[in-house]
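Inverse folding, one chain.
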């Protein structure tokens, strides 16, 4: 029954859906997942609870889509950089931009909210699947930009997927200062070299 409702919800306009998701995320940040109610989300989105349920049959379905919106908001600086980049360009400088853009994206939300999101991924199978789907979707959306820039290394999809996971770990450390006493500039230099090596190996 839930799947049928979700299929039906997918037929509604996506612009209203985004209004709902952003209202949900705002409340999620303010109150946490347990205290974010469908009534509060509907009120913040300027719709009735009945209308909300036309888009989302339950709070978890809404939070899963909210996570996807959050994920791609984090990725948006990298996308913006790639969209505006033209050949010729300095290769190592390009990789440095990628590293910086990944950190910039992680400034999107507080460490507290990011930790909640990561906890959901680690302890809930549906959120884990959603995270994996988002990562593969991001890779597939990045590939045309990289192809336009001349990246055609063997197994580039697999390399990009692996690189994104490593970049995510690096961005957590830098954006949220998770470990004191680390020389982040050294780590950044290492990351830039790592990306260059994996792309061209």
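Residues assigned per position:
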């Amino acid at each position: 029954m839930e799947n049928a409702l979700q299929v039906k919800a997918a037929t509604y306009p996506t612009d209203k859906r985004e209004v709902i998701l952003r209202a949900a995320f705002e409340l999620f940040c303010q109150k946490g997942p347990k205290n974010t109610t469908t009534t509060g989300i509907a009120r913040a989105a300027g719709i009735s609870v009945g209308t909300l349920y036309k888009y989302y049959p339950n709070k978890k379905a809404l939070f899963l889509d909210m996570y996807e919106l959050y994920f791609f908001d984090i990725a948006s600086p990298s996308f913006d950089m790639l969209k505006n980049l033209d050949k010729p360009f300095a290769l190592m400088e390009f990789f440095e931009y990628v590293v910086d853009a990944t950190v910039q994206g992680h400034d999107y939300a507080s460490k507290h909210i990011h930790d909640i999101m990561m906890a959901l991924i680690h302890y809930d199978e549906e959120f884990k699947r959603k995270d994996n789907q988002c990562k593969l979707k991001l890779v597939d959306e990045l590939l045309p930009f990289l192809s336009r820039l001349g990246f055609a290394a063997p197994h580039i999809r697999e390399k990009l997927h692996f690189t994104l996971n490593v970049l995510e770990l690096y961005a957590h450390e830098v954006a949220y200062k998770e470990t004191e006493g680390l020389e982040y500039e050294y780590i950044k230099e290492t990351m830039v070299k790592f990306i260059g090596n994996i792309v061209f190996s």
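Residues 1-12 have pLDDT under 50 and may be disordered. The chain has two domains: 1-57, 63-200.
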